[in-house]
Amino acid sequence: MYHTYLTLIIPAVISFFITVIATLFVIRYMREAGVTVTDHNKSRKVELPGGGGIAVAFGFTIGLLAYAFGSSFNLYYSVASLVELFAVISSVLLITLVGFLDELVLKGNLVLTKDRKDTSKGLKQWQRPLLTIIGAVPLVAINAGVSTVDVPFLGMVPFGIFYPLIIIPIALIFVSNAFNLVGGFDGIAGGSAAILSFAMLLYSLLFGHIWARCSQECCLQQQSHS
Questions:
Q1: What average pLDDT score do residues 84-102 get?
Q2: pLDDT for res 120
Q3: Cys-Cys crosslink for 75: which of 69, 70, 104, 204, Cβ 3.0 to 4.6 Å?
Q4: The domain containing residue 98 runs over which residues?
């Protein structure tokens, strides 16, 4: 068996290269399909393809499946339950589906203003959080996480059944939608995502939780489709 760190490194490397390749394919496909928006923040207006979250989700899923393959055949040490992994995959794919639906609605509502600037609206503000709840269903189904939480100034607080039924859906809604706030201009969200990913990676390595990675991935899905 390989060392525990290789357990994480090998799927991560596979996920990285798959994501890069998938991103190039998605960019070309979305441009040909006309799923683009005009970048009005630049003097030279360019058409930016949407649906980037599909490539991220695909690479993420392949990486986790590579881990599941190695774990099932005892190629390296297992550091997470396969049930939890597939719940995370299901959650991320559902969030991706919501984001892609937003892209389709956005394209369908494309209009041309008097100053020849195209404007479009995706899902309504209340629809995004509501549909995001769907992504919490797999995590709720397996009672993900630990119901006893260390709350500052209060100590250890047992939430019991309220943790999977209430805390997890609310947390997923907030972390996935709040991340859009940092993406006002191109590049800002990417830098923030890199910092967030690194912090979540350290947390996962130190404490052995994959839920930090799940939260970060859900953030990326919402941002990639916004």
A1: 84
A2: 52
A3: 70
A4: 4-225
